[in-house]
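Table S2 (text version). Query chain:
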Amino acid sequence: MPTDRASDLAAPDQLFDTALSRLRRRAAATGGAFAGAAALVGVAQLPMLAGCASEPQAGEAQEESWSQDQGQRNTEMVSYQNAYWTECRQPNTRFGCGSYEIFLKVRVRPVHGVDLQWKKVGATYRVPFDLHDRTAVGSYYATLPGGDEEWHVPLSVSSSQSTVLFDLWYQDGAYHTWVDDNQGEFHVVNTGAASNVLRAEPWLSTVAVTPSGVKGKLSVQVADLDYDKQLVLVGSTDGWRTRIDLGMGNRGEKNRLSWVEDLPWSGFERWDIELDLPGDFQRFEYAIGYHHGVVNGATRYSFWDNNWGQNYIVDRPAPID
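Corresponding structure-token output:
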């Protein structure tokens, strides 16, 4: 069993993003539902020399990732340690925290004999419904055994933005900018429930267990973290003695998840699957999985909607006497 929004007129950059999304869908329709698109991650040229003080200021919105453009990918020099913690900001007795800071734990390799005033470590980050990047600057924490350093980088987000994509950058003081962008796929932190990344829509489900098998449509919303994604439906018709794994496919294929539409102003997409599983079953259980970082040898981040650990269950109706 598996574990684990808005004005009447869109801004020009939002219109561009929508048009780009349509082009990607057309490419997927002709080349398969699982198409590589790492090159679609744009980079903006900024008036900056690596290691100098002209990088964007913390919290500044920008259209694309300056750090990917200006930096060189090298996880020996800077890397995410797959660890973070959160701290509440703007607490309110009625509504809880108005915002959070997500502190990322980062390892960097120091360069000796450099001008330390130009040495900086930080992150470039975005949330799914806002493609504008923001820059965060971190602080030194400790020197590790072997001489590498641990830095902590705080990402400031509102309480409604629990899912964050980011890359890490390191200006070493010797006129180099090093980047860990998860092989172009970005790292992901989700500080809330898995439903902030994906959520089944059982209220739209037409799935039924009939005398001839499991038939009908299931729908799911997923955060558009990246074009390269892998969705799976994991199910069972015999109490998990055996498992059914259904992946992605083209529109119209049975038993394959396919893209339906971009949900406006939310950063989410809708996908669905038309099930046709012949057999004599009494119950169908399922959960939905979403894997990010599935190309280029990236670190994979997986999220599951399994109905809070209970799985989604469809029973065959009892016969009518």
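Notes on Table S2: The chain has two domains: 56-192, 195-315. Residues 2-63 have pLDDT under 50 and may be disordered.
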